[in-house]
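With this grant's support, we have settled on a layout for protein records. An illustrative entry appears below exactly as we store it:
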Amino acid sequence: MTYSIGHRNPLFINLLNRLQGKNVEEINQILSEEKHNELIEIIKNDDVDYLQTILAQNPKMIGERIQQSVFAHCSIIQSSPTILQYAAFVSAIKCFKFLLLNGADPLKKIHNLDENRHRYQWDSMTIAFFFGNFEQLYF
């Protein structure tokens, strides 16, 4: 059976290349590493207490970007957003407010192409607005 990829996603092609020639255990290990990102889980659950603990240990993480993943469900996330942009995307209001109060840059932009190959640039506030997370805009 042959499959073709209509839209060449470089993340997906890279993952396929990494899996080539691996045994089942190695493939499972690569896939579990690809899927797991502690920061994503913390923000997705709006766990501001745990986020504070992590940032207290490493304050430079406040400007960190979410690692790209082939398992990301949206092109915004595939664009390596900052943790503030991700908080805006998933409506993690407590984490969003905490990050803003502690120096995260709300004007930092992500750059990407949509499915029609149009370029766009979004900052945290644009993401919050576009996805209907209006409480974040009034903070």
